[in-house]
Amino acid sequence: MGQKTYGGGEFERSNLAGQGIPAQSRGRYGAHGGQYIPETLMNEVIRLEEAYTFYKNDPAFQEELGKLFREYAGRPSLLYFAQKMTNDLGGAKVYLKREDLNHTGSHKINNVLGQTLLAKKMGKTRIIAETGAGQHGVAAATAAALMDMECEIFMGKEDTDRQVLNVYRMELLGARVHPVTSGTATLKDAVNETMREWAGRVEDTAYVLGSVMGPHPFPMMVRDFQSVIGREAKSQILEIEGKLPAAVLACVGGGSNAMGMFHEFVPHEEVALIGCEAAGRGVDTFETAATIAVGKPGIFHGMHSYFCQDGEGQIAPVYSISAGLDYPGIGPEHAWLHDTGRATYVPVTDEEAVRAFEYLARTEGIISAIESAHAVAHAMEIVPGMSPDDSVIICLSGRGDKDVAAIARYRGRDIHE
Amino acid sequence: MNEKMVPIKQAFEGKRAFIAFVTAGDPSIERTEEYILRMVRAGADLIEIGIPFSDPTAEGPVIQEANIRALRGGVTVSKIFEMVGRVRPKVDVPLVFMTYLNPVYHYGYGAFFARCHEVGVSGIILPDLPFEEKGPVAEAAAVHGVDVVSLIAPTSKERIGMIAAGAQGFVYLVSSMGVTGVRRSIQTDVREMVDTVKRYTDVPVAVGFGIHTPEQAAQISAYADGVIVGSAIVKLIAEHGADAGDEVEAYVRGMKGAITCKSV
Question: Does B185 contact A at CB distance below 8 Å?
Answer without folding.
Answer: no
